[in-house]
């Protein structure tokens, strides 16, 4: 697949890294010579210095032969024009743009991006994507990852196993015997820095990070079995009143009438603006690293501290300070890929990486075959994929026990006519089933081949 990426920042670099690793033909365009030099030095991609919306620069990058353009520069307008140029002059089939300004995305303006006006096939809004991820984490206390598939009826959840987990050292096959009506299956285990797909004889150990796929209504029960049954988070303190923090506070106001939310914002002007936008949320002007401000926000009595500023160090330190003051849980926004490895030792319960969230959203449109959803886990070490099985798929028509699935691939759930099926050896996949699969990074191409029916990109 030939892809042109406009923007060599964190997101553009991350997408280029992932796609080049999978043997795609990737070109990256950016106005910064330094960023392009880094791309050329570290990745097997072509780098071009120039403006991402200029036709001559795009042509030099090979857009006339591209299957997809992904515009993720810092500027919405550049991303939009790049997609327009790719469509009007070069007839690029798939156009993806990152658009951060919410004014462009309001419901009554959505026609702006239709094929008759400014043709963009996929719009990525990082603030909304990250905000929704934060809200899903808050809805499931004790988890480190959570995403939904199959019309939100199936959940893929990650959590770290505590020392008091009641099923430690229990082989997975015995969990099925102990809880025969539990619609959930463990599909991945991270242990000692390595991730693997477990077999039925494998056991879960304290300190493992596990990933399970479950029917959504069974998620809380499953968390309880693994010792992570958390209470509802009704007292929330948010550090950072930017776009993400404001989005999270507004969503909590709308979705949880019992919740009490307080925001700490360092800029007085921004604090006033946010206070005018929100109804029940209390907005405090001050630093999230100030103990007095944290106490004024009632952090010692809070259920969770959510740090969503633009500064990773402020986010991490404010979460650590909140925990020491007595806050029950914390969640940090972290952009720097070097920091996640430190989170557990620092007492960070969960974190969200905006780059990974955006990359996961884009990957579902890059994957070949009938791919409906993709979520990247553990910084790209594995993926959870939702795909539709067609008549020509080698998975269709055979009992699961007869499928020659490669090691590193596990089918976690099947969605058929509104029903969620957690498969066993006798389960047979039918045409048009939606299959949720956990796959290690080096096995993703095999998953694509299972669901790919032609050279067409769906």
Task: Give a written overview of the molecule.
The protein has about 450 residues and is of the alpha/beta class. The protein has 4 domains: about 1-125, Rossmann fold; about 130-225, Alpha-Beta Plaits; about 235-350, Rossmann fold, CATH 3.40.50; about 355-450, Alpha-Beta Plaits (2-Layer Sandwich). Helices cover about 30% and strands about 25% of the residues. A 6-stranded parallel sheet has the order 3-2-1-4-5-6, sandwiched between helices. A hairpin with a 2-residue loop joins β20 and β21 (about 420). The longest helix has 15 residues, at about 75-90. It is globular and about 60 Å long. The model is unreliable at about 455-458 (pLDDT under 50).
Annotation keywords:
Rossmann fold; 14 helices; six-stranded parallel beta sheet; Alpha-Beta Plaits; 458 residues; single chain
Sum this structure up briefly.
With 458 residues, this protein is of the alpha/beta class.
Number of strands: 22
CATH class of the largest domain: Alpha Beta
- By CATH, the superfamily of the largest domain comes out as NAD(P)-binding Rossmann-like Domain
Q: Estimate the mean pLDDT confidence.
A: 90
Portion of residues in beta strands equals 25-35%
Supply the number of structural domains: 4
| CATH topology category name of the largest domain | Rossmann fold
Cα-to-Cα separation, first versus last residue: 13 Å
Low-confidence stretches: 454-458
Helix content: 25-40%
CATH architecture descriptor text of the largest domain? 3-Layer(aba) Sandwich
The description of the largest β-sheet is: 6 strands, parallel
Shape: globular
Rg over C-alpha atoms, rounded to the nearest angstrom: 23 Å
Determine the number of helices (DSSP H or I, runs of at least 4 residues).
14
What is the spatial order of strands in the main beta sheet?
3-2-1-4-5-6
The helix/strand class is: alpha/beta
């Amino acid at each position: 697949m030939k892809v042109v990426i406009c923007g060599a920042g964190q997101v553009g670099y991350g997408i280029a890294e992932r796609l080049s690793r999978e043997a795609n033909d990737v070109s990256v365009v950016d106005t910064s010579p330094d960023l392009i030099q880094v791309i050329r030095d570290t990745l097997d991609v072509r780098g071009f210095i120039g403006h991402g919306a200029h036709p001559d620069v795009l042509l030099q990058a090979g857009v006339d032969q591209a299957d997809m353009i992904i515009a993720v520069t810092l500027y919405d307008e550049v991303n939009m024009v790049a997609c327009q140029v790719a469509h009007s002059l070069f007839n690029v089939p798939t156009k993806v743009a990152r658009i951060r300004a919410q004014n462009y995305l309001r419901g009554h303006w959505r026609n702006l991006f239709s094929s008759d006006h400014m043709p963009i096939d996929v719009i990525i809004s990082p603030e909304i994507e990250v905000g929704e991820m934060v809200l899903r984490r808050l809805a499931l206390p004790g988890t480190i990852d959570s995403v939904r598939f199959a019309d939100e009826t199936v959940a893929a959840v990650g959590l770290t196993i505590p020392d008091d987990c009641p099923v430690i050292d229990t082989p997975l096959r015995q969990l099925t015997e102990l809880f025969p009506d539990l619609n959930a299956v463990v599909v991945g285990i991270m242990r000692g820095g390595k991730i693997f797909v477990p077999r039925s004889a494998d056991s879960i150990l304290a300190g493992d990070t596990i990933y399970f796929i479950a029917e959504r209504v069974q998620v809380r029960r499953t968390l309880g079995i693994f010792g992570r049954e958390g209470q509802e988070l009704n007292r929330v303190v948010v550090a950072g009143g930017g776009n993400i923090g404001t989005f999270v506070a507004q969503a909590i106001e709308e979705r949880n009438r019992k919740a009490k939310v307080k925001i700490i914002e360092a800029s007085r002007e921004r604090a006033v603006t946010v206070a005018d936008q929100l109804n029940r949320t209390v907005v405090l002007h001050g630093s999230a690293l100030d103990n007095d401000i944290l106490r004024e926000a009632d952090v010692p009595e809070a259920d969770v501290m959510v740090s969503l500023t633009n500064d990773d160090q402020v986010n991490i330190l404010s979460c650590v300070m909140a925990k020491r003051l007595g806050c029950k849980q914390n969640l940090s926004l972290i952009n720097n890929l070097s920091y996640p490895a430190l989170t557990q030792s620092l007492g960070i319960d969960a974190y969200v990486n905006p780059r990974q969230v955006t990359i996961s959203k884009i990957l579902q449109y890059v994957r070949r075959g009938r791919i409906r959803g993709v979520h990247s886990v553990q910084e790209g070490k594995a993926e959870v994929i939702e795909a539709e099985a067609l008549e020509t798929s080698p998975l269709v028509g055979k009992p699961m026990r007869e499928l020659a699935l490669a090691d590193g691939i596990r089918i976690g759930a099947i969605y058929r006519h509104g029903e969620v099926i957690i498969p066993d050896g006798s389960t047979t996949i039918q045409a048009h089933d939606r299959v949720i699969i956990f796959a290690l990074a080096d096995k993703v191409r095999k998953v694509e081949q299972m669901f790919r029916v032609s050279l067409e990109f769906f």
